[in-house]
Design goal:
- The chain is an alpha+beta fold.
- The chain has four domains: about 30 residues, no CATH class; about 100 residues, no CATH class; about 170 residues, Chloramphenicol Acetyltransferase (2-Layer Sandwich), CATH 3.30.559; about 270 residues, Choline/Carnitine o-acyltransferase, domain 2 (Chloramphenicol Acetyltransferase, 2-Layer Sandwich).
- The strands form six sheets. It has a seven-stranded mixed β-sheet with strand order 3-14-13-12-8-9-15, with helices on both faces. The chain has a two-stranded antiparallel ribbon with strand order 1-2.
- Strand 1 and strand 2 form a beta hairpin.
- It contains 23 helices and 17 strands.
- It is globular.
- Catalyzes the transfer of the acyl group of long-chain fatty acid-CoA conjugates onto carnitine, an essential step for the mitochondrial uptake of long-chain fatty acids and their subsequent beta-oxidation in the mitochondrion.
Length: about 675
């Protein structure tokens, strides 16, 4: 095996004459290049950490301040009112420092202190400005004087081009809403869903909760908000995602689709080569902090912390709770094709393989005639089934020998790649093609996606792409940014030759991808089969219908001076009522990334205003003008609820944390038990 020999830097044998040591120069060279690459990455990360920490200042501003201070001292002007002289007095005596040198050093120390103080002042001012959310509640097209002044100050304090994490420590913490406000909004949200008797009972339970244990629980939450960056996110990740014992396939993971109407290349290996190269380019920008932070209105930064675990991350199963393991770097991807697993290196030394080399490697996998080893084909079904059996199988069968080494190759990969044997995508003349495409990305065959990886890149035989993403480490918009970058880079920057291959000449001397080896006993095969059967039953229970709606889009809705989001949510309420004849609790996620480490909050879109509009549509006696008026009220209410959720005044995350604190303290609350 060529790749195995190249991975060994030296070999030795014991002879009667002594130790015979043989060095592989190429292997040693590759190891040195890899070490240099790792140290270069660490230095870049250290530099970016410093630059982000002093934002909006810069090292050049420090040089200017120190030079100005030293120049003023040289001109016998003391800007420090005697502090420079006192600093000089406390400097230790040294034969290497003259009197003038001591004066310059004390001036530099004073200038550095002034610069650091100014940096802290600017960052504190930036944090205070970012706590203002009045701009979200301004009428469209009409800004108040207060908001205009705030926007000018934000532009002044963020004049420098920021790095990805420049604003992280300046973002405000998610506030803990008052208990009274949360209870009031909760009762308002459930009023359309309850008759008078049930609502009166809920009011009594809420009043009892507010007057008894709520103040005590609230104090614990406020205390937690002081010593953590976000009082919700760590509990949300653990209890909503990682402690779930049911399958994450379908129930938690989500998917992303390729271009619908364009396929840049129909060659599977070529599309995989360009896509993987583009994804690693994104990772490089991520590691260097070169990506700009997402900004609202072009001036309000959003939290970027979720991007940190995009690559080199795996969810590890446990009996009671899973854990997310994130590595600082990974130089390979794990590949699945026709029931076989491979380890594909992304670098040759310190050089990232170009797309043409990656195409060659993927083509070698596609051309490999070998079959799966016993138990290998459906091995990934363990990640699709329930978590406890997977944790038990992992501890019992994958903790030693070749199984451990191969599993580590998958879990330590940058991400997972599936070279799918099927062809999918939008085909106008093929009915149900989008349904099959979506279901394939959501669950596939239940054993051809590694559902525990941060994301799986799926490349179909006709060149179409897709992705399946694990949910616990981040929310969908984060993967959306990565996906847009990859598609754009693939299509408009890397490109293809006229016959659909990656550009450039491949290096045919590259060692082929490494086939992962397994020794799977019968007991493990039985566990794999049980997980597969459970996952297949879950997949077959999914009724998925995807269709293209081209009658109108968000442009027409905006021209009607209505929020597209409000329009869709009210439409869903109308459709559900016409189908079921009743209303139900409705969950819409809004982001809370205006705050540090923010993730999501619930918008309860079934409001009294939306139900009034829906009932008017079912009442033939209602006039068109009255229906329009009720629709306007429903849309305005929905926008208000959405903005409150985004600005930390939501309902559900606060109630969730109050419930957890009550469980920790062993307190019972009938109100929290019902919400």
């Amino acid at each position: 095996m060529a790749e195995a020999h190249q991975a060994v830097a030296f070999q030795f044998t014991v002879t009667p004459e002594g130790l015979d040591l043989r060095l592989s120069r190429e292997a040693v060279r590759q190891l040195c290049l890899a070490a240099a690459h790792a140290w270069k990455k660490r230095l870049v990360q250290a530099k970016n950490t410093f630059l982000s920490g002093v934002y909006p200042a810069s090292p050049s501003s420090w040089v200017l301040v120190v030079m100005a201070t030293a120049g003023s001292v040289y001109c016998q002007v003391d800007p420090s009112r005697g502090l420079i002289t006192r600093i000089q007095h406390y400097l230790p005596q040294s034969q290497f420092l003259s009197a003038d040198g001591r004066a310059v050093l004390s001036a530099a120390l004073f200038g550095t202190g002034v610069w650091l103080g100014t940096v802290l002042l600017f960052r504190r001012a930036l944090r205070l400005l970012l706590t203002y959310h009045g701009w979200m509640f301004e009428p469209h097209g009409r800004l108040s004087r207060r908001t205009r002044i705030w926007m000018v100050m934000m532009k002044v304090l963020s004049f420098r081009k920021p790095l990805l994490y420049s604003f992280q420590t300046s973002l405000p913490k998610l506030p803990v809403p008052p208990v009274q406000a949360t209870i009031t909004r909760y009762l308002e949200s459930v009023r359309p869903l309850m008759d008078n008797e049930k609502y009166n009972k809920m009011e009594m339970l809420a009043k009892e909760f507010k007057e008894t244990i709520a103040p005590r629980l609230q104090k614990y939450l406020i205390l937690k908000s002081w010593w953590t960056t976000n009082y919700v996110s760590d509990w949300w990740e653990e209890y909503i995602y990682l402690r779930g014992r049911s399958p994450i396939m379908v129930n938690s993971n989500y998917y992303a689709m390729d271009f619908l109407y364009v396929t840049p290349s129909h060659i599977q290996a070529a599309r995989a080569g360009n896509a993987v190269h583009a994804l690693i380019l994104y990772r490089r920008k991520l590691d260097r902090g070169e990506l700009p932070p997402l900004m609202a209105l072009g001036i309000v930064p959003m939290c970027s912390s979720q991007s940190e675990r995009m690559f080199n991350t795996t969810r590890i199963p446990g009996k009671e709770t899973d854990q997310l393991v994130h590595l600082g770097d990974s130089r390979h991807v794990a590949v699945f094709h026709r029931g076989r697993f491979y380890k594909l290196w992304l670098y040759q030394g310190a050089r990232l393989l170009p797309p043409c080399d990656l195409q060659l490697q993927f083509q070698r996998i596609l051309d490999d005639p070998s079959g799966p080893q016993p138990g290998e084909e459906r091995l990934a079904a363990l990640t699709a089934g329930e978590r406890v059996p997977w944790a038990e199988a992992r501890a019992r069968f994958f903790s030693h020998g070749p199984n451990k080494a191969s599993l580590e190759a998958i879990e330590r990969a940058a991400f997972f790649v599936t070279l799918d044997e099927e062809a999918h995508g939008a085909a106008p003349r093929r009915e149900g093609c989008m349904d099959a495409y979506a279901k394939s990305l959501l669950h596939g065959r239940c054993y051809d996606r590694w559902f525990d990886k941060s994301f799986t890149l799926v490349v179909y035989s006709n060149g179409k792409l897709g992705a399946n993403a694990e949910h616990s480490w981040a929310d969908a918009p984060v993967i959306g940014h990565l996906w847009e970058f990859m598609l754009g880079t693939d299509r408009f920057e890397l490109g293809y030759t006229e016959d659909g291959h990656c550009k450039g000449e491949p290096n045919t001397m590259l060692p082929p991808p490494q086939r992962l080896q397994w020794d799977i006993p019968e007991e493990c095969c039985a566990a794999i089969e049980r997980s597969y059967l459970l996952a297949r039953a879950l997949a077959e229970d999914v009724d998925f219908h995807v269709f293209q709606f081209s009658d109108f889009g968000k442009g027409l809705i905006k021209r009607c001076r209505t929020s597209p989001d409000a329009f869709i949510q009210i439409s869903l309420q109308l459709a559900h009522f016409r189908d079921k004849g009743q209303f139900c609790l409705t969950y819409e996620a809004s982001m809370t990334r205006l705050f540090r480490d923010g993730r999501t909050e619930t918008v309860r879109s079934c409001t009294a205003e939306s139900t009034a509009f829906v009932r008017s549509m079912a009442d033939p006696a209602q006039s068109r003008a009255e229906r329009q008026r009720l629709f306007r009220l429903a849309a305005e209410k929905h926008q208000l609820m959405y903005r409150l959720a985004m600005t930390g005044a939501g309902i559900d995350r606060h109630l969730f944390c109050l419930y957890l604190v009550s469980r920790y303290l062993g307190l019972q609350s009938p109100f929290l038990a019902q919400v």
